[in-house]
Amino acid sequence: MLYEFAVNYNHKSAAADTAYRHQRSRFAASALGLTPAVPSTIVKADSHTKGDAAKAMTASPVYFTDLRTTIENNLAAKTARLLKRAGLAGLVKRADLTAIKLHFGEAGNTAFIRPVLIRYIVEAVVQLGAKPFLTDASTLYRGQRSDAVAHVVQAHRHGFDCFGAGAPVIIADGLKGNDTRIIPFRGRHFRRLFFASAVISADSIVNVSHFKGHELTGFGGALKNLGMGCAARQGKMKQHATISPHVDTGLCIGCGRCRAICPAGAIRLARKKASIQPDACIGCAECITACAPGAIAINWNDDTRLFQEKMIEYAAGLQRAKQGRILHVNFLIQISPACDCYGHADRPIVPDIGIAASADPVALDQASADLVNAQPGCPGSALTRNTAPGEDKFAGLYPDVAWGHQLDYARKLGAGQRSYTLVRV
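Now predict its structure.
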């Protein structure tokens, strides 16, 4: 049986945000069967009242399937049905080169989406006659995913290849993270957006995100995977840093490799120590990965609201560029307290929930947050407050991060809306 319920949201104030957050979590809990259903908000899909129909018309549909399975209705079948209901066939066309954008997980991390689950999405794309490829862009920081060679090796180690996930891996921004396409944009912070080339060149995109906590945005979902994950290294740098990278002279060995690789000629070498000229720096971050002793580092933003706005401008720019050709899928499984970029994965903060999909990334992330907040916290996890069903789990993890800001700013930029209708498939 398929059910729908509508959650309408209009941001007015912090107090209103808190009230609506509790209301949305209660609605999400009802859909999951955690509390008695609210009759005015949950209706059969084929028997809307006039009021329910009006709510559904003004809200974006978010399709959801839980993790309960049977022999006849296993997770592969449920995922295929979810993608069909979410409109995959209308977004992916025959002969498309379709980017399956995901996170392969840092070495040591175990919370990333399992390759077999990605394979279900790959198979659905193949059945439409398209050619899927698995992709992500190089990281800004030094690690196992900072260049294409190391990144592909890491992906293969975690089982992402033609055998495990059913499609080849192509790193979207090229060998050294500088294969970039620029999109014009009129935002509060940016006039040009620097994206990984293969993401822009792809005919269609399935944006697959592991929904979890994040120390800068409260949570990481479809919008973060879109805005930060699809940005080329220069784009990542512009989102993260307010000024150019800095050199730790105690670690600098004066090798000159950074100066040789700098495309802007912004690095000087004096007395065997490098220095970066902020006025000349273009923020490409190539010096960070080129520095063997790790002496060059990022100047991180301190303002999480500023970071969220920059990230959302990238997400809105890509959503606009690929409008009608992109589907977003959030896996609410092994919901860890922090990003998959860490070399470890802490205990999940709530029980596993399911999979959600939508063409609207704002509504999808809002619904995903509500579904998480409707859950009880897992004892013994990093979540030590706001553990009751209906309480804000992400505020419990990161009380200084106003995670609703990213959603409200995305709505203002036209990337989607926070009001949604949850459709249980």
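The domain at 71-239+304-417 is CATH 3.40.50.11440 (Rossmann fold).
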